[in-house]
């Protein structure tokens, strides 16, 4: 059952979005004590800062991440140590930038892009070209995390060779480190084909949204003995085929925990309880970057309210433009007195 975001208040422990973002913003600030909003230098300060704050560069170069780059072997080590793997979706440069800065181990360019990024009805509509455009933007922002691109519906099911061709495009054009594809036993030859080319594959079993029309919607999987056995067999099959990890989606927690124990590769849960080796969530869901009343899956925990913060900022901007409070003098460019006088004279009588 979906819960209305309206019906819920901000969860406890939620940090306001501006605080969560401040370490990121400070990396673009010329000096730690000086930003356009805090700088006390009088007018000429624009001359100091204006090029730094130009919007021509894509928010500047992503900050250097001191942490180790996450690789597939490193994920395996984390799994052996029993250290949970953190994974989140990102669909563009800014969302990847903040996820990478927050220390996510894996960034997934999920085909949920279709629904939350492009406003489509379901994930099946999104094209390879569209996924690749977003993959490239995510890759540019990501310095530390492992990046995985989601093969969209129709781009890998026809034959293993088709899947490999698409996967290669995700590596060469999308600049991803690996790919994800949905399915169990039936995908074994496909996974073998892609991994034989040295491309890491993340599996995805349980609720596979690309098959929602066959499943009858976004339905919880593995709720009967037979169905739970099927989810386990699918997970074991994709492991055998060469997946480095597997997403287990919308499965009862007890079932997912048993599956996680039976696997030797990491299991990444979404709506699958805390027994998996890691967790994944869609970023716009967990940051609350959607209007009140939107239906979100039961497993989502909303850690922030980016919508409310953006709304507050844009409404304040609207009000200040309407009342001519913005732009203030510190947001303007100075001109020498004599040049201005000359200009006033030059236009006199025109
Ligand atoms: N924004 C977003 N977040 C997601 O997690 C997500 C997407 N989109 N799009 C693709 C899939 C679809 N997902 C979903 C969506 C809804 C439920 C959901 O609400 N299921 C019902 C159970 C329905 C049933 O079994 O009858 C639930 O109560 O959670 C589950 C997974 C996860 N993925
Ligand atoms: C929810 C995750 C696992 C996904 O597949 C997506 O974002 O498309």
TrEMBL record:
Gene3D superfamilies the UniProt entry points to: Phosphoenolpyruvate-binding domains (3.20.20.60)
GO terms under cellular component: mitochondrion
Residue stretches of biased makeup (Polar residues): 43-58
The name this protein goes by in its record: 3-methyl-2-oxobutanoate hydroxymethyltransferase
Gene Ontology biological process terms in this record: pantothenate biosynthetic process
NCBIfam families in the cross-refs: panB, PRK00311.1
CDD domains associated with the record: KPHMT-like
The keyword Transferase appears for this protein: yes
Entry EC number(s): 2.1.2.11
Region named Disordered: 31-67
Biased composition (Low complexity): 31-42
InterPro entries: Pantoate_hydroxy_MeTrfase, Pyrv/PenolPyrv_kinase-like_dom, Pyrv_kinase-like_dom_sf
Uppermost EC category: transferase
Reaction catalysed by this enzyme: (6R)-5,10-methylene-5,6,7,8-tetrahydrofolate + 3-methyl-2-oxobutanoate + H2O = 2-dehydropantoate + (6S)-5,6,7,8-tetrahydrofolate
Pathway: Cofactor biosynthesis; (R)-pantothenate biosynthesis; (R)-pantoate from 3-methyl-2-oxobutanoate: step 1/2
PANTHER family: 3-METHYL-2-OXOBUTANOATE HYDROXYMETHYLTRANSFERASE
């Amino acid at each position: 059952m979906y819960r209305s975001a309206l019906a819920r208040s901000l969860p406890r422990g939620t940090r306001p979005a501006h605080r969560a973002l401040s370490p990121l913003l400070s990396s673009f600030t010329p000096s730690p004590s000086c930003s356009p909003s805090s700088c006390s230098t009088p007018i000429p300060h624009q001359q100091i800062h204006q090029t730094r704050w130009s919007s021509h560069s894509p928010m500047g170069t992503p900050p250097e991440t001191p942490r180790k780059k996450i690789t597939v072997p490193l994920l395996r080590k984390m799994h052996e140590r029993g250290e949970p793997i953190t994974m989140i979706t990102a669909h563009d440069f800014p969302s990847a930038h903040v996820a990478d800065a927050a220390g996510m181990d894996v960034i997934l360019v999920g085909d949920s892009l279709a629904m939350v990024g492009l406003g489509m009805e379901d994930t099946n509509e999104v094209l390879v070209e569209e996924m690749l455009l977003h993959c490239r933007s995510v890759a540019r922002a990501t310095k530390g995390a492992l990046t995985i691109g989601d093969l969209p519906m129709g781009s890998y099911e026809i034959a293993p060779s088709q899947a490999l061709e698409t996967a290669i495009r995700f590596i060469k054009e999308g600049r991803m480190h690996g790919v994800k594809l949905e399915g169990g036993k039936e995908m074994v030859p496909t996974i073998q084909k892609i991994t034989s080319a040295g491309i890491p594959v993340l599996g995805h079993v349980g609720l596979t949204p690309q098959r929602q029309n066959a499943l009858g919607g976004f339905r919880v999987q593995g709720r009967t003995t037979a169905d739970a056995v099927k989810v386990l067999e699918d997970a074991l099959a994709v492991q055998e085929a060469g997946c480095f990890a597997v997403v287990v989606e919308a499965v009862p927690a007890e079932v997912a925990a048993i599956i996680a124990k039976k696997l030797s590769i990491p299991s990444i849960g979404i709506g699958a309880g805390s027994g998996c080796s890691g967790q994944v969530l869609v970023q716009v869901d967990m940051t609350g970057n959607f209007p009140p009343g939107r239906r979100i899956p039961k497993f989502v925990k909303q850690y922030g309210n980016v919508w409310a913060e953006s709304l507050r900022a844009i409404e304040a901007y609207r009000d200040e433009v309407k009342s001519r409070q913005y732009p203030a003098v510190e947001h303007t460019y100075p001109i020498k007195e004599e040049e201005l006088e000359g200009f006033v004279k030059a236009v006199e009588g025109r």
